[in-house]
Design goal:
Layout lengths: L1 H9 L5 H15 L5 H16 L4 H20 L9 H14 L3 H18 L2 E4 L5 H23 L1 H7 L1 H5 L1 H8 L7 E7 L2 E11 L4 E9 L8 H15 L4 E4 L8 H9 L16
Parallel strand pairs: 4-5
Antiparallel strand pairs: 1-2, 2-3, 3-4
Helix pairs in contact: 1-2, 2-3, 2-4, 3-4, 4-5, 4-6, 5-6, 7-8
């Protein structure tokens, strides 16, 4: 069914109305559970229709459908976030420049602004001036984690086996944001203030994407900031050609919230690991 509708959409001899109906049907099919490849195909076609060609009626249908796809992924955790708010805004602006009716323009922008206002934050690439606030976020977020490590290991083993690594995390963060680090770092901004960050890397040879050091300030925990950062990181990996995404986290109680956030972002395949220590 999906392939047949794609073929209908590509047949230029069909009317705009027929292709518009095929586009709507494709969109609904792609939202079925597990249809990740189909949804990616639909999003690509929607984007092209919005910014290429002079068929305004089809472009207006594409704008409505694309906003619908965006809203669905925002409200349903099992839908991978393949389209960021920044990408959608850019596409809508380009479509508007090519021509949208007043009715469609009002509809799509109302829907977009309503949803982004609900989230009240946006994601951007890290700036040089963000260094101090990123360190403040890292320290605040990982303080209870390091305290958990000390409690689990005991003071003596912690000082011998773990303290140096924990203390070196600040240097690790500075290295990640360095221009030649090989990592891309993105930050979440609420009311002009940075509240979280995530480091991402894609190996061009293995096509493996990795989420590295990341944190959300505890004052903003539980508001979806971490999930949005992970989903943005996954979209970045996909655009860079990655075929699989990886992330590592702790199995102790202090990492429970992180594990839930990773699982919400779709990380379900796992290899459990246990790190054991003893004094000699």
């Amino acid at each position: 069914m999906f392939d047949a509708l794609v073929e209908i959409l590509e047949q230029g001899q069909l009317s705009v109305r027929q292709r518009a109906n095929a586009l709507r049907a494709l969109s609904e099919l792609s939202l079925k559970r597990g249809a990740l490849l189909e949804r990616s195909t639909v999003l690509d076609r929607l984007a092209k229709i919005l910014v290429v060609g002079d068929e305004q009626e089809l472009r207006e249908v594409a704008a409505r459908v694309l906003v619908h796809q965006f809203l669905m992924q925002e409200y349903h955790a099992d839908l991978r976030q393949l389209l960021s708010a920044e990408e959608l805004k850019s596409l809508l602006e380009r479509a508007e420049a090519l021509g949208l009716s007043d009715e469609v323009r009002a509809h799509v922008w109302h829907s977009f602004n309503r949803d982004t206002a609900r989230r009240r934050f946006h994601i951007r690439r890290v700036h040089d001036a963000d260094g101090r606030i990123l360190e403040d976020i890292r320290r605040a977020a990982f303080e209870p984690v390091f305290a958990s490590f000390r409690s689990l290991l005991g003071d003596e083993i912690y000082e011998l086996a773990q303290a140096k690594q924990d203390a070196g995390q600040a240097d690790l963060l500075r290295g990640l944001v360095a221009p030649d680090s090989g990592w891309d770092v993105f930050v979440a901004v609420v009311e002009l203030g940075v509240v979280g960050f995530v480091a991402v890397k894609v190996d061009p040879e293995t096509l493996i994407g990795e989420i590295g050091l990341n944190a959300v300030h505890p004052a903003h925990a539980g508001h979806g900031v971490g999930t949005a950062l992970y989903e943005y990181a996954l979209g970045h990996m996909k655009r860079a050609g990655a075929r699989v995404a990886t992330v590592s986290t702790g199995g102790d109680a202090s990492h429970a919230a992180a594990r839930r956030a990773y699982e919400k972002a779709g990380f379900h395949a796992a290899i459990p690991s246990v790190w054991l220590c003893r004094l000699l």
